[in-house]
Structure formats: C-alpha cells, structure tokens
Sequence to fold (234 residues):
Amino acid sequence: MQDFASLEVHVYEQHTGNLFVHHDIPLPAFPLCLAHGDISPQGTAGNFCAVGTFTPGIEIWNLDVLNALEPTCILGGEDTSMADEIMRHNIVNAGKKNKQKLKLGKGPSLRAGSHTDAVMALSWNKIHRQVIASGSADCTVKLWDVTHGNTDSANASTFTHHKDKVQSILWHPKEGTLLATGSYDRTVALVDARSQENIKKVKIPGDCEALAWDPFHPEYLTVASEDGSLTCWD
Fold:
C-alpha cells in the first residue's frame, strides 16, 4: 500500500489505444476532490487542476508544465509568511553575538478566509471561469477568486447554511451564479452566489454523497444519498 499521495494525469492516444501517465505530481496530503479549470492566477488561459486534501488549503496545479515542483497557487491553508520572515531574520543575525533567535508560536496559523478542516468538494465555475467553490468538513461553503490566489483576498464569500460536513457541491452548467450543495446534515441547498440570503434547502433521506445536473435538461438536479436512494428535483 502506498504511503504517499500524488496527482496523476493520464493521456489517451486514440489511434493506438494507449493510456499513459503524463503527470505524476506529489501532494502533501491524501486528495479528496479535484476540479478542472482553464484560468490561471494571472488571469491567462491554460490547463489547471484544483486539488482538495485532508489539509485546509486548495492547491492549483498547472497541467501545461511538466514535472512542476510546486503549485501555481494555494487558496487558504497555512500562513507561512511569518515563518519566512523568521527564517530571514535568523539567517541575517546568525553571526551576531547575543542575538536571540525568533521562533514560531505553537500550532500553525491559517490564512484569512481559509477553511479550517479538510476540503471535501470542489467545483470550478464554467461561466465565471475564475471562480471556484469549495465544501469542507468545517461545514462551510466558500467561493474563491483564482486570480487573487496566494493573497488574503482570494476568499470572495463564505456560506454557513449547512450544519455538518459539506460532501458535494456543483455549479449549474448554464446559470453561473447558481450553486448546489449537499451535506451530511441530510439537506441539499440551492445557493444564489450573489446573496447570503437567497438559499433554498430541502431534506433528503440520508447523507448527501453526490450531485448531478442533467446535461440535457439542466433544470433537473439529481442527488445520490448514503442510503442508496436517488432523488431528482425540477
């Protein structure tokens, strides 16, 4: 059994029928969810993958770069700015006498707006292509602006309408401001991303496992529950 985590991207060659690994990216923690998008933190078009793991941060990897050593940006997660400052201070003063070294406080601090627990669900908006929605074990749903990646302003909004872990989220394929969310509190919600007030919730028979908008009739939302049932709403 592997004791390390990685993101593998496979390429299929249709004319030969071959499937091979094109990327093998090491991850800091075991992944729980993925989302594909085409806008970089610089606002340029490209090929990117957002990865949610057991840690609070969301890594954005550039799939157009082979053997990338680090993500393009990280949304939320640990705040390492103080650690970098302390390292610079200690290096500059290493040769000086009677100079006390600075140390980090106990426990990692998180960036402003970060999730505080594992990221369990991701959905990249296909209409407003710089926006990612995330659901977490901290019971919140967050909206992120990728073009503000690696800054404290990356978190655009936080919704707290669920009372348990948020297992599944999915942007509507046609309406760029409509987001479906499902939780272990046995509810599914429709969220208008422009407002904290316009949220509609319904009960389901079990914990939400997955959501799907009908590709041919996008007004239909189907929910898979932990008890094995499927429920569809118009």
